[in-house]
Amino acid sequence: MWCAWQVTYRCNFRCGFCQYWRDPMGKLPEQTLEQFDIGSRKLAKLGSMFISLAGGEPLLRDDIVEVARLVSRQHVCFMTTNGWLATPELARDLFAAKLWGVSVSLDYADPALHDRRRGMPGAFERAVKALDYFRAARRWPWQRVNVMTVLMHDNIDHMEPLLKLAADHGAYLMVQPYCYRKTGSRKFAHNNGPVAPRLLDLKRRYRNFLSHPVFLSKFDEALNGGVPGCQAGRAFCNIDSTGDIAICVEQRHRPVANLYRDHEQEIVRRLKERARGNTCTDCWYNCRGEVEMLMRPWTLALSLPELFLDRGQLPVEESQEA
């Protein structure tokens, strides 16, 4: 039901905790608009999915609006961006293409610290401007603007200020823990005590905290040995910028099929086959944990209002009783 579609591995940032910008795949030819059209229609034969246009930095593609338009015809499509290249015109065009939502990456409430982690002076200011551009560009009530935050070793105290910042700019906030497989290093992983109780307290108090409560409740488990039962290859998969398909983004160097060369039923068969041998507990990304929340009736019931209902103007904070 969820596909992360990496439209490019090129990136204009130099984030120390990611380093996809170092990936040699960023030098490979990327999919054409014709391929996006073919691939989107092919995936639709399996049913409409949530599709995340990601990277790299998606806005580096000059044709990203048309990519969004093609994929949105059959799927619920959204995008994650660092916000640097956002403009009012581009924001309007992307939402006119029926993009479901946009997440702008912000990891620190302190501009200098965010800029340093992202390796780009001015990154914080441009990200906040992007929030305003996308907020103003919404054409339908269901279109969302999010702040996307990576929980790391030194930013748990930034979560509440980031929630307030997001609310001030008409945005929601989602969080996911850093995974060492991004860089091979564990130095960015949070190891300063429990975080789930703090995050759940913020979830109760801030209406714009979009992350699923059960997803948040498993953060400490994820950071201390990992959450078992990964559904990569069953509930979600990854498509590279060349069309190669893997069960998840961190296994992108072990593709099981190609979107353009293989029949859709063969793709599903190979994904399920690889999934049977998957015992990985390394990550607790949104594309894993939030999707797994849609697989059980009671957690799905908690997700539906936040997925599809417009809440209008977001209050900064609500009481725990509310």
Summarize the structure.
The chain is 36% helix and 14% strand. It has 12 helices and 9 strands.
What does this structure look like?
Helices cover about 35% and strands about 15% of the residues. The longest helix is centred in the middle third of the chain and has 15 residues. With about 325 residues, the chain is an alpha/beta fold. The C terminus is likely disordered. It has a 9-stranded mixed beta sheet, sandwiched between helices. Helix 1 packs parallel to helix 2.
Question: How much helix, percentage-wise, in residues?
Answer: 25-40%
The CATH superfamily is Aldolase class I
The best one-word shape is: globular
The SSE order reads: EHEHEHEHHEHEHHHEEEHHH
Low-confidence stretches: 315-322
Task: List strands and helices in order, with pairings.
Elements (H helix, E strand, L loop, with lengths): L1 E5 L26 H12 L5 E5 L9 H9 L3 E6 L6 H9 L4 E5 L5 H8 L4 H15 L6 E8 L7 H10 L3 E6 L18 H10 L7 H5 L1 H5 L12 E4 L4 E3 L10 E2 L5 H13 L9 H7 L4 H12 L14
Helix pairs in contact: 1-2, 2-3, 3-5
Any key phrases for this structure?
322 residues; alpha/beta; TIM Barrel; 9-stranded mixed beta sheet; 12 helices; 9 strands; 14% strand; globular; disordered C terminus
